[in-house]
Amino acid sequence: MTAPLRLLRMSLRGFFKTSPCQTPTTPVKVLPSAELIEEERTPHYNPKHFYPVRLYEVLNERYQITAKLGWGTSSTVWLARDLHQWRWRPTRYVAVKIKANNYATTEDAERDLRLTEHISRANPGHLGHNFVSTLLDSFNLSGPDGTHVCMVFRPLCEPLWMLQRRFQGNVLPLDVVKPVTKMILEGLRYLHVQCHIIHTDLKSDNILLSLGDQSVLDTVAQDEMNDPLPQKQLEDRTIYLSRNHFGVEAEKLGRPVITDFGLAVDGSRIHRHPIQPDDYRAPEVIIGAGWSYSVDIWNLGVLILDLVQGSGPFDRPQSEASTFSDEKHLARIISILGPPPVDMLRQARNGSRYFDAEGKFKYPEFIPQSGGLDTILSDIDGCDKLAFLNFISRMLRWRPDDRDRVEALLSDPWFQEEDER
């Protein structure tokens, strides 16, 4: 292509593509500078690690920030208009995840990106590909204190814990949990079998529901423009509040999607480093028995029970909510599943820290009274309860090799009953 033709093509493309909107002049309520909000409340927060995003700035000459969607210990997530869209087409929105730059090496900084790229490309034709978050684009962003890796995704809606709030008692009925669980398992099968990836951090925060109607994103952007949320204005940055509740009606929510692969690992070998949220932690992680794919199965079992009863089976009592103890966590597992297999303890690096040579727990005073899984499901009865318990019991087992894999779980009778109706 000759230089004049190239310039003409670029000029026409710029004319027909979406133009950035102007920064509104709507008054904004300013929050007290001493009040910690959003990412500032994360442990070991350092503002220099977070890119100082400004609403309506354009990133990578393409994505105009329109609202904040969320934050975490190592990133913030933003709703953005994709300016590489024809003017006559509906506005296209994306979610831009801007990683913190608190990594020792470039390789560490890009690890999440490379893993997400692998998951996105492994087998797009696989059914489970629909139930994991996949990458649309990526780029590096230069900030005042270094470079930030940015990943672009399709916008998602509320996490599972927010879906719980839509139901009485903050618990999901079994007829809702069943299809949600099956779709999560399909996503997990994709990660395990097609990608050979262990997620390690399955929880209600990291499974989001997709949007059945994308037009709601226009409303979110307009609401932030016309009635902006309060913000905290500092000398070097503005800390915005997240618009993570879209007000979408339940029937307009889409499929569950597994997100956040920042802590995921290669499944081709046994791992031993600490993982998982405290109350979701699998026993082999604590006693140093080595862990693999089955930690995700344990996580999912705990998560499902959390959804149907409003709390996980091994959650700490309210009086101990601010502290976590490996000993007390193991005690709660013993109270529900009984004592662990002695041979498993003998093969564990840290087994003797918690159990004697005969497999007796060294802290029996911590074991609460419980009648097993059966007693903690007080709101479910009859055939539904029996089938559900049989399903859950295939995931919550001491020995990792005794837990069923995703393929076997997907053929469980609990799902077959639904298919036959």
From TrEMBL:
It comes from the Eukaryota. Keywords: ATP-binding, Kinase, Nucleotide-binding, Serine/threonine-protein kinase, Transferase. Pfam families: Pkinase. Residues 63-415 form the Protein kinase domain. InterPro entries: Kinase-like_dom_sf (IPR011009), Prot_kinase_dom (IPR000719), Protein_kinase_ATP_BS (IPR017441), Ser/Thr_kinase_AS (IPR008271), SRPK (IPR051334). It catalyses: L-threonyl-[protein] + ATP = O-phospho-L-threonyl-[protein] + ADP + H(+); L-seryl-[protein] + ATP = O-phospho-L-seryl-[protein] + ADP + H(+). One of its GO terms (biological process) is spliceosomal complex assembly. SUPFAM superfamilies: Protein kinase-like (PK-like) (SSF56112). Its EC number is 2.7.11.1. PROSITE patterns: PROTEIN_KINASE_ATP, PROTEIN_KINASE_DOM, PROTEIN_KINASE_ST. ATP binds at residue 97. It is an enzyme of class 2 (transferase). One of its GO terms (molecular function) is ATP binding. Belongs to the protein kinase superfamily. This is non-specific serine/threonine protein kinase.
